[in-house]
Write a structure and sequence with these properties.
The chain is built from 33 helices and no strands. The longest helix is centred in the first third of the chain and has 18 residues. It is mainly α.
């Protein structure tokens, strides 16, 4: 029997390194939820033209075919008019005839127009039309790439005409936004240097907004991430952009930094080495949720790194913002704030103490007790990580802040990973509170935690079963408990009952 009991004992299933790695995996889910907040592609739709001009040509296939044929005219005026009309068709707000025009053969004609340096109006209209084609599906975008538009767009970044340069940036941004393959293809054709050269004080704001959006797309995607060379080139530009006063510029700059920090430790270190962290952290106080969301995510990504990288974020004063963030009215902000704290409590004892000193533990426990379930899961990690990495005094502080009732209340959820995390937290509290074990046991019993732990001994998940068995066996099966149980069952054995009992008792 003793061997069987030993086989169910464990000291917890998460150590300090494991807890941080697991939080990195969990971060992927958090990021996926809002992946579309920052648009991958954008279509250029002129509102003032839409109502007056787009109805001139219908989307009938016959009309579109005629339009494509006339776009090949040797008459420059006819050609410009047809390309412009094509662009207007592609700028329709709902269901533009992208596939129909592709099938009619418009793409190679438009790409050819990009070479006509003597007709910048034609270059502009063709670039605009191709921009809107590239704003569609991957197949539609690849049509633009296949017919050789990318090197021509990159060349037009040096055009003497600003509107041609700006529209070329937009077109390249849509192609880059299609995915890592297209991103790297465009980078290979030399897009990075001319794009970042536009990050100047003299650049018009509307153009700069497109530039920073393209830079964000260059930084996007992890499989694979951008090359170290590309990252090192864009970081000085982002250092400037993250200090801009326009919130649209700030939003995309923070998204770019959130993508770059969503990687291995060496990539996080590259971002930190750029000196951008203090400016990024300052945006944790933003009232504009568009800026705040990627800023919180980027800082959260930084603290998934090494202990020194986590400390770099703390040294920038990030924790001073979290009292507000943990009580933010938008649940997604609160969730990411708790997730960030969970990575800090996976760090050193000094980093845990910094969380305590900023008065954040009661707010985390409140999130554990009453937040949205996704927020509660992050709070569970925050608390459990603290019991793994904290000192006995820090764990006692956690207990004093009523962590146990909040933990026990969630033991009945169906999420097996979170149940494991919570059980591990309770087990660690019991293990480290040597002189106060009885008091902790009483708290667990008083909030119906013991009943739930006993039920978890029947759980199908082996790890949960082991943890529950271990807690009961170590802390709720003492001699005192057994004596109390015996007092409740006072059997009277007399007469015939004594006679049928063999000497030495029953042999089972």
């Amino acid at each position: 029997m003793s061997d069987r009991i030993k086989s169910f004992k464990n000291k917890g299933w998460v150590d300090a390194d494991e807890s941080r790695r697991r939080r990195k995996e969990g971060a992927v889910e958090l990021r996926k939820e809002k992946r579309n907040e920052n648009m991958l592609k954008r279509r250029n739709i002129p509102i003032d033209e839409f109502s007056n001009e787009t109805a001139e040509v219908g989307s009938d296939n016959k009309d579109l075919q005629s339009l494509v044929l006339e776009a090949q005219s040797s008459d420059p005026n006819v050609r410009l008019s047809c390309v412009q009309q094509t662009r207007k068709e592609l700028s329709k707000g709902n269901n533009p005839p992208i596939d129909e025009l592709i099938q009619a053969g418009i793409v190679p004609i438009l790409v050819e127009c990009l070479d006509d340096d003597d007709n910048p109006a034609l270059q502009f209209e063709a670039t605009w039309a191709l921009t809107n084609i590239a704003s569609g599906t991957s197949d539609q975008t690849r049509q633009v790439v296949t017919y050789g538009a990318v090197p021509k767009f990159v060349r037009l970044l040096s055009s003497p005409h600003e509107h041609v340069r700006e529209q070329s940036v937009w077109a390249l941004g849509n192609i880059i936004g299609d995915g890592p393959e297209c991103r790297d293809f465009v980078i290979h054709h030399g897009v990075v240097d001319p794009v970042i050269s536009f990050v100047q004080d003299s650049t018009p704001l509307t153009f700069l907004r497109n530039i920073v959006w393209v830079i964000a797309n260059l930084c996007r995607n992890k499989d694979p991430p951008p090359s170290p060379e590309t990252i090192n080139k864009v970081l000085p530009a982002l250092y400037r952009l993250v200090q801009h006063t326009d919130n649209e510029v700030l939003t995309d700059a923070c998204w770019a930094l959130s993508y770059l920090t969503d990687g291995a430790d060496d990539q996080i270190q590259t971002v930190l080495n750029s000196g951008v962290a203090p400016h990024l952290v300052s945006h944790l106080g933003q009232s504009d949720v568009r800026v705040l969301t990627p800023a919180v995510r980027a800082v959260g990504n930084i603290v998934t790194g090494s202990e020194s990288q986590t400390q770099a974020a703390l040294d920038c004063g990030c924790l001073s913002y979290f009292s507000v963030l943990l009580q933010h009215q938008k649940e997604s902000i609160k969730k990411e704030a708790v997730w960030t704290i969970s990575n800090i409590t996976a760090g050193t004892k000094a980093q845990i103490q910094a969380v305590i000193d900023h008065g954040l533990i009661p707010l985390v426990i409140n999130a554990l007790a009453s937040g949205d379930f996704n927020t509660q899961k992050e709070a569970a990690w925050s608390v459990s990580n603290m019991t793994v990495n904290g000192t006995p005094e820090q764990i006692k502080y956690l207990i004093d802040q009523q962590a146990i009732p909040a933990i026990c209340a969630l033991l009945g959820v169906r999420d097996t990973q979170i149940v494991q995390v919570l059980l591990d937290g309770l087990n660690n509290m019991l293990e480290t509170s040597k002189d106060n074990v009885e008091d902790i046991c009483k708290v667990i019993e008083d909030c119906s935690g013991l009943d739930k732990i006993e039920e978890l001994q029947q759980h199908q998940n082996k790890q949960i079963y082991k943890l529950a068995f271990d807690i009961i066996d170590k802390h709720f099966s003492s001699d005192d408990c057994l004596e109390n149980d015996e007092d409740n069952f006072n059997f009277q054995i007399t007469g015939a009952e004594q006679q049928i009992t063999p000497d030495g008792g029953f042999n089972f």
